[in-house]
């Protein structure tokens, strides 16, 4: 990936709805080479798709929670079981494997505290093999972006 490809990605992260003509102008290319580069980025998997950055509260999910989970055992079977189950839970928007005292951090959205209790009791606890769950509720967001920093 070269600098021009990175410019294309950043421009699309800032406005995924821009036309190829606008994208080409933004990255100082003519439309045909720009479209060719875009298709190559999609084919290679560098661009995985396009989505909408929707407001979770407006959608009806105003509560964002970071849930840190430590497993009791770290054998391949238990880790794979946990990860497979997490993949099927809609409230989990992100799941990251961590170093340190916690094994996973989940970003979860729910409609209210009762929904969060239901999430823990009926989605997380039945997975089994969990040693601890630590929860932090988000009460404000200072910065949220999907735009990568420049690599100049």
Supply database-style keywords.
2 domains, 4 strands, alpha+beta, Arc Repressor Mutant, subunit A, elongated, 6 helices, Alpha-Beta Plaits
Structure description:
α2 crosses α3 (31-44). 11% of the residues are buried. The protein is built from six helices and four strands, in the order ααααβαββαβ. It is an alpha+beta fold and 152 residues long. The radius of gyration is 20 Å and the shape is elongated. The chain folds into two domains: 3-44, Orthogonal Bundle (Arc Repressor Mutant, subunit A), CATH 1.10.10.10; 56-137, 2-Layer Sandwich (Alpha-Beta Plaits). β2 (92-97) and β3 (104-110) form a beta hairpin. The protein has helices at 3-14, 20-26, 31-44, 56-59, 76-87, 113-124, and strands at residues 63-71, 92-97, 104-110, 130-137. Residues 1-62 form the HTH asnC-type domain. Keywords: DNA-binding, Transcription, Transcription regulation.
